[in-house]
Amino acid sequence: MATDQPTGILFDVDGTLVDTTYLHTVCWWEALRQTDQPVPMATVHRAIGMGADKLLDHLLGPERDRDADEKLRDAHDTLYGEYWERLTPLPRAADLLRACAERGLRVVLATSASEQEVGALRRALGADDVVDTITSSADAKQSKPAPDILVAALEQSGLAAERVVFVGDSVWDVAAAGKLNIPCVGLTCGGTSRGELAGAGAVAVYDDPAALLAELPDSPLARPR
Question: Membrane-crossing residues (predicted)?
């Protein structure tokens, strides 16, 4: 392998860099309630990180009547859109991205949010000056735990799977990275426990971007493969 091959860090955004996991939980919970398909919030929360199609399969079963799926997605999107102007970055998220860039690592936002949502997330994060590449849901045929969005991020950035690390907050992030043999660093700020992330295969787990930044020199992000 060439020693001058570029290295980079792929970041999930929802729940990893921007504090949205519980907003998505509440919005899906309400959308399900509106269609008379109630699911406990704790169960909904554990599915956040999947795309809408797989999330609904996970919550309602693959044999469900799919006629209401579009209504469910529209309800979620409408409810979630009410929060866009109030989205908040997680502690020191932008500083973490800048620190990675200062180390010569290319920063890639590997998100499967819609293009409109990506705009709201970028405004909340405020780190466009150091972001090399950003994906959206339009770039992936299948959502996590399928690795499609990571494949798209690699292709668009010109990075190789052998030279990157992925940072995410859900077991679905860890699973997607594992399919490409990409090490995944887990953050618990999305509400998934350290044990769950480590049990899913995360190579290291931190509380949030601030905690990862504080230990950056000794973290997997500082040890390009």
Answer: none
